[in-house]
Amino acid sequence: MSFQQHTTRGSSKSGEGSTDSGSAVNTLSNTPESPTDHRQPPPRQMDSAGGIDSPRISGSHSHPAAAKAKPAQEKKRGPGSNSDEVLDAKTLRRLAQNREAARKSRLRKKAYVQQLESSRIRLAQMEQDLQRARSQGLFLGGGGAASGSINSGGAIFDMEYSRWLDNDHRHMCELRTAFQAHLSDGDLRVIVEGYIAHYDEVFLLKGAAAKSDVFHLITGMWTTPAERCFLWMGGFRPSDLIKMLIPQLGPLTEQQFMGICSLQHSSQQAEEALSQGLEQLQQSLVDTIANGSVNDNMQHMAMALGKLANLEGFVRQADNLRQQTLHQLHRLLTIRQAARCFLVIGDYYGRLRALSSLWASRPRESMIAAADDNSCQTTTDLQMVHSSQNHFSIF
Fold it and tell me: What is the pTM of this model?
């Protein structure tokens, strides 16, 4: 009897010991380890009965989710983890983008300030030119006597054309430098095509100006006096330009020479057709205004206004002919010949503008002397004509 009680008490004690050991193991396994804890687990006790090891093994496998969560937590909490690296890369990239945006904003602000300053300088120069013209007794703007000011469309075009002239000087310097530096044909082609696009821009400006104030454009008040002498429908005559260019282009092949001559002939025919159409329009306008009476005066004025609207079409066709002539010259010539062609055109009109400045700034004494010389020359010419008419009167 006592032996059975002792056995029972021993087994219960061993069971309590095993239970306590299992709970202790479970408590240790469920406790989260710190990232820096690298202690080795205690060695297992080898028991033949397995009373101590079995609860520890069961406790370690009783919570698989907790066992899987440990590596994830260690991975997140590591000081050199990938998430920190990704976050740092995104932050650096965002800072770099902010710095680049700030740099571009400063450049845009600087360019805008420079543009305002150049516009202010051009406006001051225009005011000085206007004051000088008024002091010399010149009148600008055609109909400005009635309205007291130039049309806003014409004034805007004058400012845009002044800006275009500044860009033209820059393009000319770039083209001359590239031509004298003997660049490759590919590099020179880029500069020449940029210069053609620069000419296309002025035709767009003239098209917008023709809609707002065609009289300001067709009378050539936006050009210098020397340029105005050779004006045709608000611009240059393409056939005269080609005639001036042919001796300046250097040696041409037979095919190039025939193509340029054909271009000159077709341009001249188109010019004659446009000139005849403009003369017919002017004659029709004269007839409409002259045949009006007091009773139907408003009706005739409405008809005259409708005919005047056709002036815009003539100016547009003339500008289209000029633009196509420049593009055809570029196609007929080699790239170096085209570069020389545009250099000759730019120098030609630069000299005309310089001639106008010299003419406007010459002293009054020389103006009076030149007027006297011209009057004497005119009298001599009239005497020669009169004598020649008497000489051929027998016929």
Answer: 0.56
